[in-house]
Amino acid sequence: MIKRLVAVAALIPAMLGTTTGIAAAQSAPRATTAVVTLTYDASQAGQWASAIAQGVQNWNSAVHNVHLQPASSSRTANFVYKATSGWPQTTLGPIVPGGSKGQVQLGQEAVTEGYDMTRIAAHETGHIFGLLDDYSGPCSELMSGHGPGTSCTNAKPSAAEAAQVDRNYANRAAAVAPQRRQIVIDIWSGPALTRTD
């Protein structure tokens, strides 16, 4: 009888078309309430417009519990993209509607060093969602940033990164903005710095 129960238990996922094991452990919970919509303003982003659009599309295609869309005005945006002459830096999230406004500074110095603009824009957006840098990661991980070098142009989050963002936004009530905002400064030719505002 025990052998039959074990055999039936093993068949149930196959009959339902589900998987077990590592893939199931990596999947993120879907939102229990409405999807969190974050609005952004790219009016100060200049030459970064197409890189931002592609980075946003990559994130929207990869995640389920949060959605990015342009704001109707800069005043109503949850975060802003801004072109700067320095290094990329971003407010570390997760940014939530009604919380403090976030900012993504898209620094020209990283482009001058040879890094891909779309990868930079998508990477910095990952910080808005609450993801940290992992410079030791492979090119397939968006948050590995400058670690893989200038030849890496991947601007799509890995499945694990997308799953973490979905976990960050799975329960809108749980996505509470931190009291103090941390700024992640991505110095793409050296170690990352952070400062707290």
UniProtKB/TrEMBL annotation:
What is the protein named?
Extracellular small neutral protease
Q: What EC number(s) would the UniProt record show?
A: 3.4.24.77
Q: Which UniProt keywords apply?
A: Hydrolase, Metal-binding, Metalloprotease, Protease, Signal, Zinc
Q: Which residues form a coiled coil?
A: none
A GO molecular-function annotation: metallopeptidase activity
Q: Which family does it belong to?
A: Belongs to the peptidase M7 family.
What SUPFAM superfamilies does UniProt report for this protein, alphabetically?
Metalloproteases ('zincins'), catalytic domain
Signal peptide (UniProt feature, chain positions): 1-25
Which cofactor does the UniProt annotation name? Zn(2+)
Q: List, alphabetically, the InterPro entries matched.
A: MetalloPept_cat_dom_sf (IPR024079), Peptidase_M7 (IPR000013)
- What species was this sequence derived from? Actinacidiphila acidipaludis
